[in-house]
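User: My instructor asked us to take a sequence, write out its structure as tokens, and then describe one feature of it. I'm not sure where to start. Here is the sequence I was given:
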Amino acid sequence: MASEIKSFFIDGPAGRLEALLNQGQPDATHAALVCHPHPLFGGTVHNKVVYHAMKTLSGFGFPVLRFNFRGAGMSEGVHDHGRGEVADVRAALNWLNREFHLPMIFCGFSFGAATGLRAACNDQRVRGLISLGTPVNVEGRVYTYEFLQDCTKPKLFISGSHDQFSSEKNLREMFEMLAEPRELVLVEGGDHFFEGHLAEMQSAIHDWVEKVFHPENMEAR
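Assistant: Let's start with the prediction itself. The structure tokens for your sequence are:
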């Protein structure tokens, strides 16, 4: 289901944030936000994983917002090592809410997941959380997810079985600490970037969204 793409800026706490919006369909049931990986390592809205996640969510007719974190692309501000970026995500969620007044689904890849989950977890407007390539231990940077232990929103984690930044053991240990409902999908043979396995990642997103947010289940969401 194709939708027009709009390029613009939204107001962020450290200046303007460069954004792209797939407009979605008039009868959309949800809006979605997709956050990109670490900007100091080339992460932007044009990352392949982010793009394919957007395409999957857009396929449901949802309006889907992507934006560049502070200091990335044409976004103003300076990279803040994940601290100020949480506020960037909140600004994006606020924009989506003002524009569409729809329940929202959050999706983030790598740094975008670790950062965005902190903003989306306690936001009552966000009804579901998708984490792609969830980083646990990356070259000395340790990511922790205790804040998700009491989060009872539907949660989907998708990682490659050969993710170089999250061993299956570490990922499963983190996952087992989390509150239900939760789902973990390991893409066999996939690395952190799902190279050669993006279709499997997309299928996992599609199947989960269809299952959790199917019209028959909407009353509970």
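For the description part of your assignment, you could build on this observation: The mean pLDDT is 93. Try explaining in your own words what that tells you about the chain.
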